[in-house]
Design goal:
The structure is a homodimer of 355-residue chains. Chain A contains 12 helices and 13 strands. By secondary structure, chain A is an alpha+beta fold. Chain A has a 7-stranded mixed β-sheet. In chain A, α1 crosses α4, α3 runs parallel beside α4 and α7 packs across α10. The radius of gyration of chain A is 21 Å and the shape is globular. At the A-B interface, β2, β3, β4, β5 and β6 of A face β2, β3, α3, β4 and β5 of B.
C-alpha cells in the first residue's frame, strides 16, 4: 500500500468537512499542506485569539511496548499528550497533524487500530485531524503529533507568571496513577501484579486506564484561565519536575504539602503491594496530565467553587513564596517536618535519559 | 543531558525574539506550547491570510545514511522538505516545530550539527523555530518537522484547480538531480561514481548538493500565485507521480513533452556514465522540490516574463486536456511518438514502499 493509499485508508471519512470547518479547516488531508482560517469564530472563545502549538512524540520501546499498550491506546495517547500541552496553556485544542513511521511489525490492520484510537481521542476533544505523513521505519513505531489550539489573545498561561502570595493548585486526576499503571502493565506476570489484578480487578483496571488512556485536562485549563490563573504546567513529567519548572521560570519558591495532595486508593493499594512508596510515583512518576498552577488565594476560592459546580477535581496544595527558585514539600507528618519542608529532587520522568 | 537542557543547548539564542516576533511569534521554545498571533502583518502578504500547515518526516536508513548525508544536511533537508510543501500551496513559510528521536549513535555534538543545518535552512527561508520535543530512540534517528505558512485568504494553490486549456508549467531546479546525487553518494566507491567524482568534480558536487541541500521554490510559488496559477504540486515524489496527482485531483489529462523538460548537464553526464536513462531519474526520482503547476496560456506568458526578470527558471512543458485523468509524455523523438504521447507509470519515489 503506498503512502497516500495508507493515509486515506486510515483516515477517510472519519470527520466530515462540516465538522472540520467549524474548527477553521479550509482544506484538510490530501494536498501538500492543510489550510486553516485563523479568523473563524471558535465555540467557547471570546474575541480575537492566538494559536498555541505543541509537538510531542511517542517511540516504541521507550513510551510503550506490546505489554503496556494496545494499538488503539498508542494512537489515543499520542494525541492526548499533545492536547494536554494545549490544556496547560489554557487553550482549546483544534487541529492535529500526525506523522507515523511504521515498521513491518505494524501491519496495515494494526495501523488502522492505532488510527482508531487517535480518532477516538480526536472526537472526544473536538480535534480536526488535518494532515501528516507516513513513512516506513526500519524497526520501531514512532508517532509524532503536532496539535494547534486557540486561546484568547494575550492570555495564554505560561510557566513564568507565579507570584509570591499565590497558592499552588492542582486540577485533574490524582497523581501517580499512570506510573502505577505502567508498573502493573510492564510486568503483568510478576506475582505482585498478577495477584493484584485478580484480587482488586477494578483498581487494576483504573491504573491501567490511567496509563493507557490519560485524560488531558482541557476543561480544567479553561476554568483556570477564566479564574485568573497566573502560571500553569501539565504534570507530564511528574509533580516535582513541573513545580521546579514553574519556580525557575517565575523566580519564586513553591512549597507544597503532602497531606493536601489527592491520593488515589488504587495507586496507594498497588504501591503498598509492590513495596513502593506512593509518594515516589506521585512526585516522580509521569504522564498524569493533571494541571499544576498558581493563582491568588481569592481567585483559587472562586475557582474551587466553579470546579465543584462542574464536578471536577481541584485542590489547593501549597503556597508560592519569594526566595531562590526551588520546589519543596512539607511531609504529611507535621511533627517530623520543618515548616519550610524538604527540597524536592529536580529529577523528573524523563524519557530522554532512558532507553 | 536531559531533554530541556538538550533543546536549549541546540537551540538557544539562534533566533532573537524580535526576529521571531515579526513572524507572529508571541512565545517560542520553552513552555508547554508556543503561541503565535495570526493577525500580525507578514511582509509580502496583502490583507487577511490563512495558515497552511504541513508535516514531513525523515528516517535514518530510509531517507539518509552516513554515506549520503552529513549531519548538518539532515537538519537542513528535514526543514527544507516541509518548506517545499508550503511553497507548493503558494505560501510564505513562517514557523517550524521539530521532533527529534535520537539514538545513542548521535552524540550531543552530532545533534548540534543536525540543528546547525536546520537553523541554516530556517534563516535562509525566514522560518521561526518555535517548538518541538526530543526523545531517545532505540536505534535510528527520526526527525519530524511541522511547518506553518501564510497565504492570502482563499488563494492557496491546490492540486485540484487544473482546467482543460491550461498549460503545464515547471519552476525550479532541473529534475532528476537529487536522484542522480543519491545514486552517486550511496555508492561512492563504485568505479563509476569514483571516476565521475574525480573527472567531473563540479558536476559531482552539483548533484550531491541537489540531494543534500535541496532548494524549496518559495519565491517561485509566490510568483505563480501572483500570476493566476490554478493548480500546483511540489515534485517531491517525481514528475510522473505529481502529474498524476494533479490529473486525478482535477479530473483532467496532463500531456507533457520530453523535449521541453529542463535537463541538467551534470545529471545527464552521470546518468550516461552510470548506464541509466536520464528520463528515469527525471520522471521517477524524487526530492527535487521544483514546482509543477497549470495555468492559462496568457498567464503563463506573463509569469515567464516575471520569472525571467528575477533570473528564476520557468518552463512551459505541456498542456491540460479534457479526458480521463492521467499523465502522459510525448517523447523527444517526434517521429516515433504518437501525438497523445505515452501513458506515464503512476509510480513515484515512495519511501513507504522501501525499507
Amino acid at each position: 500500500m503506498d503512502e497516500f493509499a495508507s493515509i486515506r485508508h486510515w483516515t477517510a471519512e472519519r470527520q466530515t468537512e462540516e465538522w472540520q470547518r467549524r474548527r477553521g479547516v479550509v482544506l484538510g488531508i490530501g494536498d501538500d499542506a492543510a489550510v486553516i482560517d485563523p479568523l473563524v469564530s471558535i465555540d467557547g472563545l471570546d474575541g480575537p485569539y492566538e494559536l498555541v502549538m505543541a509537538m510531542d512524540t511517542m517511540v516504541e520501546t521507550l513510551h510503550f511496548n506490546e505489554r503496556t499498550m494496545a494499538d488503539e491506546d498508542i494512537g489515543y495517547k499520542a494525541l492526548a499528550a499533545n492536547i494536554s500541552d494545549i490544556a496547560a496553556m489554557g487553550g482549546i485544542p483544534l487541529h492535529a497533524l500526525v506523522s507515523a513511521s511504521v515498521p513491518r511489525s505494524f501491519s496495515p490492520e494494526r495501523m488502522r487500530q492505532v488510527y482508531d484510537g487517535l480518532y477516538a481521542c480526536a472526537e472526544r476533544y473536538g480535534v480536526a485531524v488535518i494532515g501528516g505523513d507516513t513513512t516506513s521505519s526500519p524497526q520501531h513505531l514512532v508517532v509524532a503529533v503536532t496539535v494547534t489550539g486557540a486561546v484568547e489573545a494575550g492570555r495564554a498561561l505560561r510557566r513564568s507568571g507565579a507570584q509570591p502570595g499565590d497558592v499552588v493548585v492542582l486540577a485533574g486526576q490524582p497523581l501517580g496513577m499512570s506510573a502505577g499503571g505502567l508498573h502493573l502493565l510492564d510486568a503483568p506476570d510478576s506475582p505482585v501484579s498478577a495477584a493484584f489484578s485478580v484480587e482488586q480487578p477494578r483498581e487494576a483496571a483504573a491504573l491501567a486506564r490511567a496509563h493507557q488512556r490519560p485524560e488531558p485536562s482541557v476543561r480544567a485549563g479553561r476554568l483556570l484561565l477564566a479564574h485568573g490563573c497566573r502560571s500553569l504546567n501539565d504534570v507530564s513529567d511528574g509533580l516535582a519536575s513541573e513545580a521546579w519548572e514553574i519556580a525557575e521560570a517565575s523566580g519564586v519558591r513553591l512549597i507544597m504539602r503532602e497531606r493536601d495532595l489527592p491520593r488515589s486508593g488504587s495507586m496507594t493499594a498497588f504501591a503498598a503491594a509492590s513495596g513502593v512508596k506512593p509518594l515516589e510515583w506521585m512526585l516522580y512518576g509521569g504522564e498524569d496530565y493533571a494541571l499544576l498552577g498558581t493563582m491568588k488565594p481569592s481567585d483559587a476560592a472562586a475557582a474551587k467553587a466553579a470546579f465543584q459546580a462542574e464536578g471536577l477535581p481541584f485542590y489547593i496544595i501549597g503556597e508560592v513564596q519569594a526566595g531562590s527558585p526551588e520546589a519543596r514539600l512539607i511531609g504529611a507528618d507535621d511533627a517530623d517536618s520543618a515548616p519550610e519542608g524538604v527540597l524536592l529532587a529536580k529529577k523528573g520522568y524523563n524519557h530522554f535519559d532512558e532507553s
